[in-house]
Every structure is written in structure tokens, then in C-alpha cells.
Specification:
With 114 residues, the protein is mostly helical. The protein has a domain of 71 residues. 58% of the residues lie in helices and 0% in strands. The protein is built from three helices and no strands. Helix 1 packs across helix 2. The longest helix is centred in the middle third of the chain and has 30 residues. The radius of gyration is 20 Å and the shape is elongated. The protein starts with 24 loop residues before the first helix and ends in a 10-residue tail after the last helix.
Length: 114
Amino acid sequence: MEIRPIDNSVLPAQNKQGVASHGGEHEEQKLKKAAQSFESFFVAMLFEKMQKTAGGKGLFGKGTSGDVYGHLFNQAIGDAMAAQDSFGLSKMMMEHLHKKEMQSTPKLLDATDR
């Protein structure tokens, strides 16, 4: 299992009150990349767990080299599935983030709202 450090550049910048400030399209791309990275990691872990329950030698045999090649293979499958959005987890995460953003954005009142 590979543990990757958190990339702080994909998190939205916060002001002094701790509220995320939205930088537009650039922030959207960073969030999408983070969601795809999470989906890739999730799919790779899912494949590793499924292969362990199947028993046998696995695709690349037993031993350290088989484990390394198996892990790299699972990572590549996870990356490919996340890039094509075939699993759909990153899409659900982005929809959830947009819904939360819309709920937290205050509505501006105009003269017709009185």
C-alpha cells in the first residue's frame, strides 16, 4: 500500500475566517484533479482487496516482485478508470462539492425580495 502525501495545492485557499475562497476555473481544475486522484486510489485499493480474496498466485506470481508488479498494475488500472470517469466516484464528489458550495453561498437580496 502506498501512502501519498497530501498535496495542499489542491485545497481551496482560505481567508482569515477559515472560509474557502473560490478562484474560479483554476480552483475547479484542482478540485477535479484531487477527486480523480482519490477515485484512482480507491479503485486501486478495491482491485488489490479483490485479488487477495481470490487466492492463488495472482497475475504476476508470488513474492516481492509479484507484489510490486501487481501494485503497479492496480495503480495503472485505477488511473485509467479515473481518467475516463468510468467508475463515477469523482463525478459524485464534484456534484456534492458544488451542492455544498451553493448552499453555503449567501443569496443577495434585491428590491423585489421585500
